[in-house]
Every structure is written in structure tokens, then in C-alpha cells.
Amino acid sequence: MNYGQYKNARNASWQCLIDYNIDSLPVKVSRIAKQTDIVLLKNSAVNLLHQNESGTTLMQNDKLYIIYADEQSPQRCRFTIAHELGHIFLGHLFAKNGKGFAITDDAEHSANVFARDLLAPACVLHEIQVINAAAIANLCDISLEAATYRAERMAELERRNAFYLHPLELQVKEQFADFISKNKNLP
Length: 187
Fold this sequence. Notes:
By secondary structure, this protein is mostly helical. It contains ten helices and three strands.
């Protein structure tokens, strides 16, 4: 994935946080879906996912449906929904059959970056100094695996002091100001 695509995914996650007035962690992906009129469906109710598939997005009669594998952990389900929202907000093209998105490595990586940055915004974690995987998993209600990837990226951002280089990130920090203030001294 090239840096331009990475930045687009990151910026889209910040814009989503701003547009849907998210100001605390953990981010409620169901609230974003509801506000955008996207229907969330448990696969146990519709049985549309293939084996080993975590989620997909379908469009039917101009309505979007995110189907997620609800037998997976709640944390994994949250990431899957955020990933599918990433495909939607990043404008990825639907597959020719209208079921899910055209699969490319770049699209999948972009959707993962979007989901990671939506569920665990780096500037908020930086401000309250929650930068190790276990603490990130706990605060953001994401899997330890996802939190480990976020912690690795946080270490790089902290090393480079690479925060607030884009105005959207500063807006996210300001939007989370009360949450940051209340959680400044987390262990």
C-alpha cells in the first residue's frame, strides 16, 4: 500500500470520528452504522458468509447491509464492522456480483487502516499515554492482536513525535478533550 492510500484511509477515519461526533472510547460502530442508515446483520440470523469469512457488505435496493460473523469475539466483530465501514467510506468498488467489495490487497489494507484508526485513534491514545497493547485492547475494546498492531504503530509515532501534522487530527483531539481530561492518568 502506498503512503497516499494510507493517508487517505487515516484521514477518512478522522473525518468519520468528526462527522459522527465520536468523543469517547470505545467507539460505538453500531451508532455510526445507525446514523448512516447501514443495517448490521448477524450472520447467525442470515447465514450468508462463507466459512472463515468475518464479514461482508451487501447492497440491496440501494440499502447497505453489513453482515458480520457474530460467533467471533465481540472485539473481532467490532473490528470487522469498522473494516466494512472503511470500505464504504473509502468508496471501494463493489464486486461485479454486488456482494461485497472487489478484493484487492490495497483495498483490504486501506480498510484495516481505517478500522484501526477509527477504533483506536492515535492522538487520543497519545494524550492519555495508553500505548501498550494490553491497555489499548482494554480501553478501545479491540482484540489483543489488533491492539498489538496499534501499539507497534504507536511506538513509531511516539518515536517520531508524529502527531498533529494534519488539521483533522487536531480536530479529533479537541473533540475528545473531555474524554482525554477524564482519562489522563489511566494506569
